[in-house]
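User: Some background: our group keeps a shared notebook of sequences we're curious about, and every so often someone picks one and asks for a predicted structure to add to the entry. Today it's my turn. The entry only has the sequence so far, pasted here. Could you supply the structure so I can complete it?
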Amino acid sequence: MRILVAGNGGREHALLWKLRRDAPEASFFATRPNGGMAGACEAVDFAPGDPRLASWAAAAKIDLAVVGPEAPLADGLADRLGELGVPVFGPTAAAARIESSKAFAKRLMARAGVPTAAFEVHEDLAAAKACIDAMQPPVVVKASGLASGKGVSVCPTAGEAVTAARHALEGGFGEAGKQVVIEECLEGEELSVFFLAGGDGVLPLLPSQDHKRAGEGDRGPNTGGMGAYAPVGFATEELLEEVERTVATPVLAAMAEAGCPFSGLLYAGLMITSEGPKVVEFNCRFGDPETQAVLPLLSSSLLEPMLAVARGDGVAGVRLEFRDAAAVCTVLAARGYPGAYGKGDPVSIPALPGETFVFHAGTVLGPEGLATSGGRVLAATAVAPTFEGARAASRTAAEAIDFDGKQFRRDIGWRESRRRQPAGTRLGRNGAGPESPLPHKENAK
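Assistant: Of course. Here's the predicted structure to add to the notebook entry:
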């Protein structure tokens, strides 16, 4: 079997790692692999969005193409692969609008009755301002298109919301900001749920929770993700059944009715509010860094259901099995991230004990060894029988890895840790979260 992974970030490294475990005899290929992927696959010198990649995959007789990032999906990579007869795990460009157009997704949810924040979509600043003035702050302003995780502003005041809408509509995010979605701000606790979707069914993976803010205690600017953990204590079987019933199933049915059936990985980013789960956003691919926490706990094959979906057989009758354990992933970022950061710093990774896995994102393997090449450099994932064991091991690994300017959060999973504390105890700020945490108001993933 010949398997192509399109993409070269931390998520793609985790997917490659898992698929190699499922099919050690297979031949693997990846587009411009990072320093950690390089020794586990054959490099393909195309970017994932390069139109020539599909032709290469067909000529190379690829049996399964797995597309990691959202931008190539939105640009039609899955369509091109399908037209050339290459089985692909990932949605068409029309279906990828569930992520690439927040306006499309919100309107679809409204038609399908999927619970989400109240919203309006605007292309004109005066109309957007009128909408903001009618809402009670805080207000969330989102560029409708793909903006590399930078197009969402949670605004405490109406003035800040108008400024955010003006920035987007006047070209601050290019084409992505031609429309803005203005939403009420949801309050609760976030939850990420992945669904393998194909045919007439969905197959949920373990729920996870990520940490978007750069600083400990969930303070500071939003990032692409500073860490994640799985499973999540409050995500009961009953809650997950409700999410499948009220979120995944109806939105997929609505997409099929709209003529853009979804096939691949549907990521539901949720806020668990006092009124129940509400959708913050949908993604059309695996999340990063949640994938690095979820996949090490998957004991059954990921390749089997991926192939079934790619071949059009769906997931009916497929079962996933997960270990009775916990995983915590800590992201190590370059100095300055999520702002400007340098590249080319040497990276040293010592031998790590136990079940600790290092997934590479922004690294490159050159003649002089491993070096940084991105803002999020590595992710240290630890698996242990207990959550606190996994948490401690992940933090220890992050401390042991070395590169100049390394930054990471020492409090990944602090909410889960707090939930597990005996009644009456309070957590301090030394890796367990603040004593008085900020309200969790996030309409951005």
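Suggested note for the entry: Residues 237-257 form the longest helix (21 residues). DSSP finds 13 helices and 22 strands in the chain.
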